[in-house]
Amino acid sequence: MTETQSTHTEATAYDVVVIGAGPVGENVADRTRAAGLSTAVVESELVGGECSYWACMPSKALLRPVLAQADARRLPGLSAAVQGPLDTAAVLARRDSFTSGWKDDGQVRWLEGTGADLYRGQGRLSGPRTVTVTGPDGDRRVLTARHAVAVCTGSRARLPGLPGLDEVRPWTSREATSAHSAPGRLVVVGGGVVATEMACAWQALGSRVTVLVRGERLLGRMEPFAGDLVAEALTEAGAQVRTGTSVKSVTRENGTVVVLTDTGDRIEADEILFATGRAPRTDDLGLETVGLEPGSWLDVDDSLRVTGHDWLYAVGDVNHRALLTHQGKYQARIAGAAIVTRAAGEPVRAEDWGAHAATADHAAVPQVVFTDPEVASVGLTLAEAEQAGHRVRAVDVDLSSVAGASLYGDDYRGRARMVVDLEDEILRGLTLVGPGVGELIHAATVAVAARVPVDRLWHAVPSYPTISEVWLRLLEAYRDA
Length: 481
Fold this sequence. Notes:
Layout: E1 11-19, H1 23-34, E2 39-43, H2 49-54, H3 56-72, H4 88-98, H5 105-114, E3 117-120, E4 122-127, E5 130-134, E6 140-151, E7 155-157, H6 165-168, H7 173-178, E8 185-189, H8 193-204, E9 208-212, H9 224-237, E10 240-242, E11 247-253, E12 256-261, E13 266-269, E14 271-274, E15 278-280, E16 312-314, H10 325-343, H11 360-363, E17 366-369, E18 374-379, H12 382-387, E19 392-398, H13 403-408, E20 415-421, E21 426-434, H14 441-449, H15 454-457, H16 470-480
Parallel strand pairs: 1-2, 1-6, 2-3, 6-16, 8-9, 8-14, 9-10
Antiparallel strand pairs: 4-5, 5-6, 7-15, 11-12, 12-13, 17-18, 18-21, 19-20, 20-21
């Protein structure tokens, strides 16, 4: 692989051109190169993308000491030793190590090992199967694709249209995960995953956190009890959680952020984080040259091919199917296989659960929210299953009733819900809330994706005494209902 630069415009042909070198683009390139297709990868920032430097890795590095301390405080014999504050500087230093100091040398070496060519600069479509790359020094290269162009540019934080917001210099998810000190007071606007995780992290790292949630509860897209339990824990940790509250205006006066809410409250802080959704990174992508709307999400079929364009793929956040790194990488594996198969002139297997269909995006998306308590889910919530027309029954279990939970920590609080399809006798979804549940969700993912019958799950015996015994409790509750 070479980092290609040029002093004049020239055209270079490849089998595949990938725009975006985050985990999604890397995986597309890995699959196409493994099959022998020549591949170019274009990246305007750091190879490794949002996940490596401003999202998954740094945020979880911030949260891991927070959760470890919370677990330790639940154990007699250990709790007294961990009552003091976290060493914020040490936590931030470890976070920095996971981002490699925001340098991408290691990721470049990995991409180099696949045999793909890396082009640094802004990649834009300039017609069918054509990408023009403008390098950091203004040089232009034209790349053509014999078989496919894959758009893997991801998403960015979406800020509300409040007057003067730019002058306030608000945090987005990027600043929240890369900050080099804990603000004394932090206002978090939003109630989703970024909002709850960053509220949990910075409260534990020394900030006084206020969370402003427009809706009725945190984590509004998950089972209702998930957001309620997280809000309860945040409040006990010292944060303020205000639901049913919208921001009316924000200003920065002499360095202090002043927030006025629609309820008439005035809140002062040192920093404000807006975690109010995501927007596609497609506004400067040249979509208009191929009949698509700049700044839009890209509609795709289950093989990740853009509607109406047999050569164009949109993989990861940019298609708005499931904005999670692991789902984007899953889509990349599917798209890569589809590109290779079509390049060979062979038929694709696009039926549900086929080799070239990202069916899990519809039926079996897993997610972990790394708050205290953790929230883990896969598949449909009860409300989603009912809205989809399934005849279902929800079964709830108090996780503290499981022996493994009691051993995990004193005063363990948590809950589990299993959503069962009464027609097919399979699981449509499962949600777990409680310390340590993130490592349990893959078992549920297998059950949902594989459509394992409930009567067969009786024969999947959970080890004693583990929190996984919740499976037995859920099945018993379903049988006895």
